[in-house]
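User: structure tokens for this one?
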Amino acid sequence: MALFNFGKKKREQEEAARREQEQAAAAAAPVSEPVMAPIQEETVREEPVQEEKKGLFSRLWQGLSKTRTNVSGRVDELIEATEEIDDDFYEDLVDILIMSDMGVRTSDKVITELRRRIDEQHITDARKARDILKQILKDMMNKERKPLQWPMVMLVVGVNGVGKTTTIGKLALRFKDARHSVVLAAADTFRAAAADQLEIWAQRAQVPLVRHAEGADPAAVVFDGIKKAQGAEADLLIVDTAGRLHNKKNLMEELRKISRIITREYENADVRTLLVIDATTGQNGLQQAREFSEVADVSGIVLTKLDGTAKGGIAVAIMEELGLPVLYIGVGEGIEDLQAFDAEAFVDAIF
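Assistant:
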């Protein structure tokens, strides 16, 4: 034991001496040529961006795990059991798509296009059909969206319970982090504590909030919100609205009144209406989108709680049947889990 301890101590002394020599050599080494500095700096700048992209896709992948198991898992099982691409194969595949909440109409359209491409390319291998299916879904979901223009007013609509207030808070943080000035307006004056919840997010994002007493005129809140945004020369005014879809007439009148206020008082602002839908409601969410589209000029969809459902196919149905782009998706509770929708990444994450 004594010999072992002695040998260990000697090795530690030798290692310490070696490190001292290396440090002395490094100190005496000539300074690198200045021309190399920009290359080193550029490399440092690229790494966080790459890590961020990996992190975003990782969260998307994890958030869509239930849908991936439901869709990709069943498609893979079907392909393994398929010896020949025939009518039975297509019937089983359409059933899988319908079960993912893609809807009968959209599922039939996907399978019709899949048949056409497979026949056109004379494909007999079911594994290749999987790749074609992915590309069809990407093509269907890759909707054109308007570029952002400033100043902007975002009217956020949706029934109660879909995560509307949380989405507004996350949007405020998202744009604030992108160096845009933001103002929030709590125009949902009918739901108890709606303004209180929004105030918590305003404090978290460190952005101003305009609110009135419960039961106040929503249009008056929007008016004051516009004046606040104009006075602060803000880029973005995000307006929370009441989710009273059960009474379409009142909701329509309220939105029209708000629109008139914006047109009159903030004529240079670009106005967008974002509809928030809870993905876990499935086909009911599609029906909500139809009804809101009847009473409001919906610009795009925010699909929340995708991490809580195995039926993410509702995103395809909404975009295909209503022609509306999904602008943002929620795949978790964190601020980073509200992501800008990317058709390529979305389909890759569920397959």
